[in-house]
Amino acid sequence: MDEFERHGVAVVSGRNACARALRSPELTSDPGGGSPSVLLRDGDDHARVRGVLRAIIAGLEPFPDSLRAAVEDGVGGLGPAFDLVRDFARPVAGTVTSAVLGVDLDDVFLDRLEATTANLDVFGGTDGAGQAAAFRLAVQLSRAEAEPGGLTALREAHAAGRLDDDELMFNPVVLAHAAYENSLNFLACAGLELASGSSRSVRDMVTAICPARYVLRFGPAGPVAVSLADGLPFGLGRHACPGSGVALAEAEIALTALARRLEGGCEVGEVRWKTHPVFHGLASAPVVVRLRDG
Ligand code: HEM
């Protein structure tokens, strides 16, 4: 019995059953309570907020040259010993998330973003710590100076009456979290595959690694966890990831640069995994690059 079943949450698995569930009008993403988050609503309000976010993400399609150069320089500059989470995946995911929002995000911000995830309340209980971290980030972003980019676009959508006050307060954090967390986990796991000698394509790796293992829906008989592990890493239906193109481009660039860095071979030290029931990822994976020519 997995963690969901222990909490009385039904689990749907198998690709066809999951695809049907994700497209079903019977199952909603809205747990009730009127959340302003794009992830936790359906219907016209969801489509309206999603439209604003989709236009922001389209600003990174195709992936901008300056962002490509920043990712390549960062990965190319890794020293002879580094951690695939702390030194590879985190800076790449952080750089891309900064570009999505058009805001400089420091380590404190990224720590809070990860705290939000670690505590993310997936069982409908009351986890104050995760919510507190998300709330602090929302306040921080509401005061942040923004360059052209996602946060400015959200503020403009608010000024134009396309977002209400609550939607403007919380969706910058939702966007930051969506852009950061799954990419962080995917990049680190895929980096470990590379370091272990795999040469699968990025698309095959994201399907196999599946960093977001489940999405939660609510039906007439209660909450349902829909598994994405059978070939649906970006979900499906109304909430399917609008950032999948950016995520794949980001991974292609970062993993190609990492493969170059690891060309001469490497040793992988002790690997530690996170234990979150939804977000599948590494806690740390130290790597030492072999010196070329002895
Ligand atoms: C490997 C990286 C990524 C994976 C595996 C992933 C996966 C997902 C999944 C499974 C969902 C659906 C959630 C649901 O149905 O409840 C989702 C939603 C979302 N993702 Fe991604 N994502 C990734 C990267 C990104 C990036 C880079 C961005 C932004 C640039 C992004 C933006 C979003 C947004 C805004 C949503 C909410 C969509 C909605 O509720 O309508 N994601 N993502």
Automatic annotation (TrEMBL):
<feature type="region of interest" description="Disordered">
    <location>
        <begin position="23"/>
        <end position="42"/>
    </location>
</feature>
<dbReference type="InterPro" id="IPR002397">
    <property type="entry name" value="Cyt_P450_B"/>
</dbReference>
<dbReference type="GO" id="GO:0020037">
    <property type="term" value="F:heme binding"/>
</dbReference>
<dbReference type="GO" id="GO:0016705">
    <property type="term" value="F:oxidoreductase activity, acting on paired donors, with incorporation or reduction of molecular oxygen"/>
</dbReference>
<dbReference type="InterPro" id="IPR017972">
    <property type="entry name" value="Cyt_P450_CS"/>
</dbReference>
<dbReference type="InterPro" id="IPR036396">
    <property type="entry name" value="Cyt_P450_sf"/>
</dbReference>
<dbReference type="GO" id="GO:0005506">
    <property type="term" value="F:iron ion binding"/>
</dbReference>
<dbReference type="GO" id="GO:0004497">
    <property type="term" value="F:monooxygenase activity"/>
</dbReference>
<comment type="similarity">
    <text>Belongs to the cytochrome P450 family.</text>
</comment>
<protein>
    <submittedName>
        <fullName>Cytochrome P450</fullName>
    </submittedName>
</protein>
